[in-house]
Amino acid sequence: MKRQIEIYDTTLRDGAQAEDISFSLDDKIKITEQLDELGLHYIEGGWPGSNPKDADYFKKVKKLKLKNAKIVAFGSTHRPKVKVNNDHNIKTLIAAETEIITIFGKSWDFHVTEALKISLEENLDLIFNTVNYLKKYVNKVFFDAEHFFDGFKDNPDYAIKCLKAAEQAGADCIVLCDTNGGTLPQEVELIVKKVRNTIKSPIGMHAHNDSDCAVANTIIAVLNGAVHVQGTMNGFGERCGNANLCSVIPNLQIKLGYSCIDEAKLRNLTEVSKFVYEIANLYPFKRQPFVGESAFAHKGGVHVSAIRKRPETYEHIRPELVGNKQRVLVSDLAGKSNILKKAEEFGIPLDPNSPDVQAIVDNIKHLENEGFQFEGADASLELLFRKTLGIRRKFFDLIGFRVIDEKRKGDEPTLSEATIMVKVGKNVEHTAATGNGPVNALDNALRKALERFYPELKKVKLKDYKVRVVNSGKGTASKVRVLIESGDEMDNWSTVGVSENIIEASWQAIVDGIEYKLQKEKLKKGEI
């Protein structure tokens, strides 16, 4: 039987302490629902005594009908010289009315004497009194031994005494915290083994990532007896972050055979990871293991040739196990295998022996030499395939456009206006539009001209716009590459354009984005 590992998420507290992250109350509720749906065991909602938002969270979260997770309130041991039953923070923890409370206490003698300015014995009393008192009010109390690994390295006898104080008070799990994130895996292994020989209570691991070892340290702790792991989605957290549950869970479950969450729910891991990034208003880290967009992306021709035969040649797991997918990138490194794989993805029949395959390879290599990059512009790439094969449909012809920028006073914003003339079939449309910049004005004018003929374009939005200088040595005369992400209610797609003129490069990407949408609609209806 697989050993069960409890997964304890602290994204809403530790994760929210990261630079550039600030969750609203509604954000916290939305994330809670997603983490519960993923099947995590515990969700640490915050510290109810620290701010009104966290206090409100515990009131609002009671209304949710959670299926899997238990909500946990977090706080510290009672203050020195204040009785535990009179401590305001302890009262707010009880008032949160959760089934579980996590308490952190000092386990490094240096912190006890220098931060708290109390004796070592007094600190042991704080730990015992707090855990013992809270056990009367909740089903479970977890004790986070703050700075445990640093404390153990400095004074192992006292660090163990702190754990024993919590154990004697009835703590249901004793969590060893690498709070400064500086402990290395071999140290974790040695220390956890010594703790297991001394402490009978279940132990857990809480690792920070300041040495880039948080995931490894968490896995090492489990291999040596920990049954409870704490971490955050995407590794969010203070300084360099916390142990990344998006890596911890699949490593433990897929690689090592432990039971963390339901296997069917594990397939939602990538989706939940992206959801948390979205709520945090951060771009997902493409190279994030397991759930990143590049985690199963293949670019080299040799690699692609191999994975087409056996995916495990260059993939450590099947991406579908964590809800991700295999991607083949096409660039100047591409071989015929890349082209055939992409054609398959695009639903374009392509004979491996056809000279068209080499024609596509040559075309891509030529364009990338000019500054194009198709790795992040699959829509433009598909249109390039269709153009080379003679199956790209043209939906309109440009007769001409003009873009004017005008600034009347130094303290007023620049005004942008685009005038455009296009031909759709036998019809000529001539129109104009304004925008908050020349590209926005041009995009608005083109849509305005085409929407009468193609009403489906009303649902298309320009979602992201990036510009990069290709050959920076030429200063303002340099080529620029424009990447545009467009989308509708169902899908997003990316296109690319390159030119010495930023408006021209933008025009190329805008046109590709519109033609890609129209082509998909016609294919869907069987009109192409």
Keyphrases for this structure?
eight-stranded parallel β-barrel; 528 residues; Double Stranded RNA Binding Domain; TIM Barrel; alpha/beta
The CATH architecture designation of the largest domain is Alpha-Beta Barrel
- How much beta, percentage-wise? 15-25%
Say what the CATH topology of the largest domain is: TIM Barrel
What's the CATH class of the largest domain, please? Alpha Beta
What's the N-to-C terminus distance? 55 Å
How many beta-strand elements?
16
Report the structural category: alpha/beta
Q: Share of helix among residues?
A: 25-40%
Largest sheet: 8 strands, parallel, barrel
- Fourth-tier CATH superfamily name of the largest domain: Aldolase class I
Report the principal-axis shape. elongated
Q: Can you characterise this structure?
A:
This protein is α/β, with parallel strands linked by helices. The protein folds into 3 domains: 6-261, TIM Barrel, CATH 3.20.20; 297-382, no CATH class; 396-453, Double Stranded RNA Binding Domain. The protein contains 18 helices and 16 strands. The protein has helices at residues 25-38, 52-60, 88-95, 109-116, 120-134, 148-154, 156-169, 185-196, 214-223, 245-255, 263-266, 269-279, 301-309, 336-346, 355-369, 378-389, 438-450, 502-524, and strands spanning 6-9, 42-46, 70-76, 100-106, 140-146, 173-178, 203-207, 228-231, 297-298, 327-328, 397-406, 415-424, 427-435, 461-469, 480-487, 492-499. The strands form 4 sheets. The chain has an 8-stranded parallel barrel with strand order 1-2-3-4-5-6-7-8, surrounded by 9 helices. Strands 11-12-13 form a 3-stranded antiparallel beta sheet, with helices on one face. β7 (203-207), α9 and β8 (228-231) form a beta-alpha-beta unit. α6 packs across α7 (156-169). The protein is elongated and about 90 Å long. The protein starts with 5 loop residues before the first strand and ends with a helix.
